[in-house]
């Protein structure tokens, strides 16, 4: 392998260590322990693993674990009622509805019930709008993790030609927006893109977030490019990504593995968002208290 291996586990561990100190300082200064309410509906096995990991990591950095579990057959109304309750609960700093939800539920209107200041997944229309306008707000976790990894390895973003493969609301669109906000030149590709390999060969950075195992082969990669793999596929030989790793690593300058690349960053960024959500709510409450006092 000639590429530098981007070690997401190590970067995530550093992010968590810094956060632990920041959470302790915030709690000492305000008396508030930020709390994360993960909401899991049903028992999708991968979601159970991810939510368990989110809960464990939250506690390890000093956040309160306010997890909620609803049964597989929970109705849309039951999930709505839970989200309304969490939205109104001052002990809850962040709310995350684990995706996917069972097929009989409609996730989009449920996500909209999360107030923007508690939207630690950055998926509400308000958060998406704030990102599009490059205004302060909570950003989606996997996309911010991708940026954090590029920065950790000093991969230049400003002026870079980036090709994002996939246009999902969870990863493709927001990562493209974050990169544009950092002055990259971004091409979003999808199932109708003509000659995807040729488009990818123009890229200084490829972000593969398409959900097709091994789609990105070595001939997609310009020599020295950074290849960021967001895909996760479970097979008989274990986990793999959207990138055909070993051959691509012979051509790339930087590459993320699966597992151990972007995945661990998703959770680290969620923890950071939960602290930021608590800080935001604290300043909103202080501003509202001083406005009432001076009225
Ligand atoms: N509400 C959300 N739902 C989902 C999100 C999300 O950001 N918000 N992302 C994915 C799943 N996900 C977090 O929820 C997630 C995926 C992967 C990892 C991770 O650490 N992966 C490890 C491998 C772990 C394993 O053994 O499976 C790795 O890549 O090294 C963490 C979180 C969909 N749903």
Automatic annotation (TrEMBL):
<comment type="function">
    <text>Catalyzes the oxidation of 5,10-methylenetetrahydrofolate to 5,10-methenyltetrahydrofolate and then the hydrolysis of 5,10-methenyltetrahydrofolate to 10-formyltetrahydrofolate.</text>
</comment>
<dbReference type="InterPro" id="IPR020867">
    <property type="entry name" value="THF_DH/CycHdrlase_CS"/>
</dbReference>
<dbReference type="GO" id="GO:0035999">
    <property type="term" value="P:tetrahydrofolate interconversion"/>
</dbReference>
<keyword id="KW-0560">Oxidoreductase</keyword>
<feature type="domain" description="Tetrahydrofolate dehydrogenase/cyclohydrolase catalytic">
    <location>
        <begin position="6"/>
        <end position="121"/>
    </location>
</feature>
<dbReference type="InterPro" id="IPR036291">
    <property type="entry name" value="NAD(P)-bd_dom_sf"/>
</dbReference>
<feature type="binding site">
    <location>
        <begin position="166"/>
        <end position="168"/>
    </location>
    <ligand>
        <name>NADP(+)</name>
    </ligand>
</feature>
<dbReference type="InterPro" id="IPR046346">
    <property type="entry name" value="Aminoacid_DH-like_N_sf"/>
</dbReference>
<keyword id="KW-0486">Methionine biosynthesis</keyword>
<protein>
    <recommendedName>
        <fullName>Bifunctional protein FolD</fullName>
        <ecNumber>1.5.1.5</ecNumber>
        <ecNumber>3.5.4.9</ecNumber>
    </recommendedName>
</protein>
<dbReference type="GO" id="GO:0006164">
    <property type="term" value="P:purine nucleotide biosynthetic process"/>
</dbReference>
<dbReference type="Pfam" id="PF00763">
    <property type="entry name" value="THF_DHG_CYH"/>
</dbReference>
<keyword id="KW-0028">Amino-acid biosynthesis</keyword>
<comment type="pathway">
    <text>One-carbon metabolism; tetrahydrofolate interconversion.</text>
</comment>
<dbReference type="GO" id="GO:0004477">
    <property type="term" value="F:methenyltetrahydrofolate cyclohydrolase activity"/>
</dbReference>
<comment type="subunit">
    <text>Homodimer.</text>
</comment>
<dbReference type="GO" id="GO:0005829">
    <property type="term" value="C:cytosol"/>
</dbReference>
<dbReference type="InterPro" id="IPR020631">
    <property type="entry name" value="THF_DH/CycHdrlase_NAD-bd_dom"/>
</dbReference>
<dbReference type="Pfam" id="PF02882">
    <property type="entry name" value="THF_DHG_CYH_C"/>
</dbReference>
<keyword id="KW-0378">Hydrolase</keyword>
<keyword id="KW-0511">Multifunctional enzyme</keyword>
<dbReference type="InterPro" id="IPR020630">
    <property type="entry name" value="THF_DH/CycHdrlase_cat_dom"/>
</dbReference>
<dbReference type="GO" id="GO:0009086">
    <property type="term" value="P:methionine biosynthetic process"/>
</dbReference>
<keyword id="KW-0368">Histidine biosynthesis</keyword>
<keyword id="KW-0658">Purine biosynthesis</keyword>
<keyword id="KW-0521">NADP</keyword>
<comment type="similarity">
    <text>Belongs to the tetrahydrofolate dehydrogenase/cyclohydrolase family.</text>
</comment>
<dbReference type="GO" id="GO:0000105">
    <property type="term" value="P:L-histidine biosynthetic process"/>
</dbReference>
<dbReference type="GO" id="GO:0004488">
    <property type="term" value="F:methylenetetrahydrofolate dehydrogenase (NADP+) activity"/>
</dbReference>
<dbReference type="InterPro" id="IPR000672">
    <property type="entry name" value="THF_DH/CycHdrlase"/>
</dbReference>
<feature type="domain" description="Tetrahydrofolate dehydrogenase/cyclohydrolase NAD(P)-binding">
    <location>
        <begin position="140"/>
        <end position="281"/>
    </location>
</feature>
<keyword id="KW-0554">One-carbon metabolism</keyword>
<feature type="binding site">
    <location>
        <position position="232"/>
    </location>
    <ligand>
        <name>NADP(+)</name>
    </ligand>
</feature>
